[in-house]
Amino acid sequence: MFLVYFKFLDNKDDIAKVRKCFAGLWSLDDADVVRSAVGKPDLFALKPQREGGGNNIYGDSVRETLVRLQKEGMEELAAYILIQRIFPTSVPSFLVREGTMTRSL
User: Fold this and answer.
1) Which residues 6+ apart lie within 8 Å of 44 measured at CB?
2) Could you give the percent of the chain with pLDDT greater than 90?
3) Which DSSP letter does residue 49 get?
4) Backbone angles phi and psi of 30, in degrees to 5
5) What φ, ψ does residue 4 adopt, rounded to 5°?
6) Global pTM?
7) Contact status, residue 27 vs residue 81, Cβ threshold 8 Å
8) Which positions ≥6 away from 65 have C-beta within 8 Å?
9) CB 29 within 8 A of CB 81
10) Which residues are 102's β-sheet partners?
11) CA-CA distance, 100 to 58, in Å (whole number)?
12) Which of 3, 53, 62, 85 is the most buried (most CB within 10 A)?
């Protein structure tokens, strides 16, 4: 995973720091990760492996979809990847439009 780090960095601590900047991404052939996602679906999202974006699956639907896909078999599991959800911190911002400022949170 992320072997390109070793091309540019040789210090393991530096590599670990860089890895923290990226969200996790897994194929569904990793049983431990799938088990984690079934147990805590709010920490993950399922993304279909197709063009166009959208159609991601979140929340309890992650658990339901993973259980269904496991019953259907490996071919169906291969149609998705599991990604770690990102929970950004809310930061106040300001928008100025036509000379009027509005603040959002």
Assistant:
1) 36, 37, 62, 82, 83, 84, 85
2) 46
3) S
4) -95, 100
5) -60, -25
6) 0.69
7) yes
8) 46, 57, 80
9) no
10) 95
11) 37
12) 62
